Amino acid sequence: DFSRISSEAALRKLGSSKKGLTPLEAAKRLKKSGVSTLQHSRQLWLQATLRQNFHDAFFWILVVAELAAIYLGDAHIMLALGAVLGVNIWANAEFLRHGKRFVQHLERLLQVPATVMRGGRQLQLETSELVMGDIVYLSQGEAVPADMRLLAADHLVVDEFNLSGESKHIVKAAKIGPQNLALFGTTVLAG
User: Fold this and answer.
1) Which position has the higher pLDDT, 162 or 136?
2) Which of 33, 51, 118, 145 has the smallest CB count inside 10 Å?
């Protein structure tokens, strides 16, 4: 756990330095770990909705009850169960649609450039090109491009609403403890 060790120990553990990784080492790590992207299915919306419903026990209970109502010839129960079944299918479809929108939002966060120190030089890289051991600079208004251990912080304030749902702003510091972690998708407000 990087929050429980000093910044110097974290750098040693990651095989990095205050000058950042060498370009050669960063290239090796990128080749080994691959580009950082979100993995998600590109299946069609209707396919995904049907697949979700087929794996839902409540859906099957409703189908069996609907078939029983048809067999018994009870029109009122048949209509009521049909309506509930329709609402269940619609709710699952909405759940999938919102999930897909959330993944698209996260993908946009991954496309933000990050300022990185590599080989003693500051570079602008796509977030997807970051590797373990990179030294990343955070600036006001930017999204934190990856989970990271802070090495230095000057009155750093982060909005973690995306993670916690709480609207309070979190003050970060580089000293040992949980306050030295900046998490992916949060926003730098100051510092």
Assistant:
1) 136
2) 33
The per-residue DSSP string of 12-61 comes to HHHT--TT-B-HHHHHHHHHHH-----------HHHHHHHHHHT-HHHHH
Find out whether 147 and 185 touch, Cβ atoms under 8 Å: no
What is the Cα–Cα distance from 83 to 60, expressed in whole angstroms?
A: 14
Residue-level pLDDT at 55: 83
- The CA distances from residue 78 to 68, 73, 91, in Å, are 9, 8, 20
Residue in the structure block whose two tokens are 């509930």: 84
Q: Which two tokens stand for residue 118?
A: 């590599």
Percent of the chain with pLDDT over 70: 93
Which SS3 state, helix, strand or coil, does residue 184 take? Answer: coil
Which two three-digit tokens encode residue 64? 């069996």
Give residue 23's pLDDT band: very low, low, confident or very high (50, 70, 90).
Answer: very high
Query: What contacts 139, CB < 8 A, 6 or more positions away?
Result: 115, 188
Q: Residues 172, 179: contact at Cβ < 8 Å?
A: yes
Cβ-proximal residues to 45 (8 Å cutoff; 6+ apart), any chain: 93, 96, 97, 100
Backbone angles phi, psi at 133, to 5 degrees: 100, -10
Residues in the chain: 191
pTM above 0.70, yes or no: no
Contact 152, 164 (CB under 8 A): no
